Amino acid sequence: MHISLDGFVAGPNGEMNWIKVDEEIFDHVGKRISEGDTALYGRVTYQMMENYWPTAGDRPNASKHDIEHSKWYKNVHKIVLSKTMDGEDLTNTTIISDHLLDTINEIKQQTGNDILLFGSPTATHSLIQLNLIDGYWLFVNPIILGHGIPLFVDIKDKIKLKLLTTRQFTSGVTELNYIVDGQ
Prior knowledge:
Layout: E1 2-4, E2 8-10, H1 23-33, E3 38-42, H2 43-56, H3 64-75, E4 77-81, E5 93-96, H4 100-109, E6 115-117, H5 121-129, E7 135-141, E8 149-150, E9 161-168, E10 174-180
Parallel strand pairs: 1-7, 3-4, 3-6, 4-5
Antiparallel strand pairs: 2-8, 7-10, 9-10
Helix pairs in contact: 1-3, 2-3
């Protein structure tokens, strides 16, 4: 997840135009997500992704990243947290509307690779409060927003983390990869 130095994942109206991405970051992220077989989204992020990624790689001017991510997106199993969506006509997509704790824990027990959570601050807040996040893969952007949508809200108990890796990108973005200590 991209985050500002002061802990925001989006501006006050959901703006993300401050996020720095380039081929170096896309290549790095592409390698990591290719290991995941399940993507988890909140409704808003899922709808944004669904409007772009299924056909992004088919466009005549598609970048290497668009082609690779579009292919991955088409094949990955998608889980969407939503109380308003109906998943009957969605291919390779599961909608979770209630019993979040039990359902996510069931999914985590199934065989497969990592479940990767993309964006989705509201969904992230719910998962954090239920202690369902095993690790944080953060891309700290060299900007202070001052206000916006924070990554961490209403944290009831401390969450101890163990730093696994860091990486500095040419753009000034720093990747921090943590696991929840004790996981």
